[in-house]
Amino acid sequence: MAGVSTPASIEELLDRMLDISGGLPKRLKQCADYVAANPDRIAVSTVAEMAEGAGVKPSAFMRFCQVLGFSGFSQMQRLFRETYAQNWPDYATRLEKLRESGAGSPSALLAEFIEAGRLSLENLAKTIDPRTLDAAIKTLSDAHMVHIIGLRRAFSVAAYFAYAFEKMNVPTMLHDTVGGLDSRHAIRPGDAVIAITFAPYTRETIELAEAARAGGAEVVAITDAIASPLRPITPLLLTVSEADFGDFRSLSATLSLAVALVVAVGARARAK
Amino acid sequence: MAGVSTPASIEELLDRMLDISGGLPKRLKQCADYVAANPDRIAVSTVAEMAEGAGVKPSAFMRFCQVLGFSGFSQMQRLFRETYAQNWPDYATRLEKLRESGAGSPSALLAEFIEAGRLSLENLAKTIDPRTLDAAIKTLSDAHMVHIIGLRRAFSVAAYFAYAFEKMNVPTMLHDTVGGLDSRHAIRPGDAVIAITFAPYTRETIELAEAARAGGAEVVAITDAIASPLRPITPLLLTVSEADFGDFRSLSATLSLAVALVVAVGARARAK
DNA sequence: GCTGCAATGGAATTTTTATTCCAATTGCGT
DNA sequence: ACGCAATTGGAATAAAAATTCCATTGCAGC
What we know:
By secondary structure, chain A is of the alpha/beta class. The first copy, chain A, folds into two domains: 10-84, Orthogonal Bundle (Arc Repressor Mutant, subunit A); 121-271, Glucose-6-phosphate isomerase like protein, domain 1 (Rossmann fold, 3-Layer(aba) Sandwich). The first copy, chain A, contains eleven helices and seven strands. In chain A, α2 (26-37) crosses α3, α3 (47-54) packs across α4 (58-67) and α9 packs parallel to α11. The longest helix of chain A has 22 residues, at 106-127. Chain A is elongated and about 75 Å long. The structure holds a DNA duplex (30 and 30 nucleotides).
């Protein structure tokens, strides 16, 4: 039987489909067309569902998978599921290994962090919701002033926001804890707040966001998990999941999001 | 049993998770955390896989689904399969889609910055000189104290250094210009300075680096061009060229370099 | 119009996966 | 330390899904 090798990637699979789709019997052609049109369904459907979608019987769809070089539907589905699920490497394990091998060379370490950044960026592209992004930008550019709060790890993101907004002439205030001063009363109705925090969430950031909301200001949240404590506070929730490496998290995706926000807001504000 | 209604959307589900996650037994809490961190996996995994990911037995995960208001795992999975069906082509396709959403639209802008970040990371991997990196790490981990100076755009990198070194218990001082105070006399022989600046170079950063060098401290420079004004000051020159989009430059590569430096220095310092 | 071969549909079978149930264990209040 | 209730792990059961097999259908060449 399997004179043909099983495709190792979705691209390979599509190539093979193109190759053979000319000389395919009617039902199998239907399968090919349906798969080509709805590749995203494969990962989450059963053979029965795929077959029905293609207008054929399950056994026909089954044969189609085999013609493609798979042992059956399950094997083909596995390929799609693996591609679909973000495959973060298991960094806990990797870091462990790196430590074992004599702390590893710094270049190897750097390579890992570069990889982590790359994955985070890819993931951002896949998960960002354009509508929320649009809404956040509208809110920020309509605000009289943009307040920024982000502490600890998120402080560097907050600092970048402050720098970049400043450069785009958007009125901005960076909230920090220098001198133990409480600056939350500077937030007024009609203003907007960008609150940035990642697990373990910083209490001060959340409190400031809550206070701002209560005082009639809009809040745009940048956070990591869907279960972030900022979620109850605002619908404008931009989630960025960064690959972390041990205790250290990449900030690549977060900063890319930041700069995109700033430029979009700056452009809109200027147009008015 | 089902005193609670079954969630009709992922938002509803997450709300409920938030509600109850406080008073949840250990294993069910593990499930909640795992689901919150990898919501995308649910659609394409079996209970057994999810349970393993959460570090619990399948029956525990099962109970978790029921606590959430579902009849079982299958019903919960159906919710995720339906809503995630539209998302998720691969990275390249997705990025293309974001770009197509109209030149100047926020999504398109974000796509450009993501791409810029990726290019920067790739470039960093190719151009970094392992020997300079090694030498920089050695210098920093031998220092009594690490001073950090970076202003304007580089300030967010400096802030990140300060945060991360602090977390690794490396004695650190972040130099800023708050209050117009001059803190350069805090730098003593045997200390090291990380100076970060990009074109157009910030005068204060360069002056501080010069002063430090004159006073007998080592300087590690993070900068963008070979012709950087920091070059005459120190041989420990880590150059990072970031891709830019418009006037805005990514910081992805610089931050990846920063975290790699910190972890390597932290590991070495601890080993002593 | 018959023959033989490829294609098809449907039913039977096997495998995988979800779900339930119960016994063992843990942790808590007394 | 004891008993009780809640929690947990594991095995048994039920359900669903994949896969195979075979009888039937359609179709090309003779």
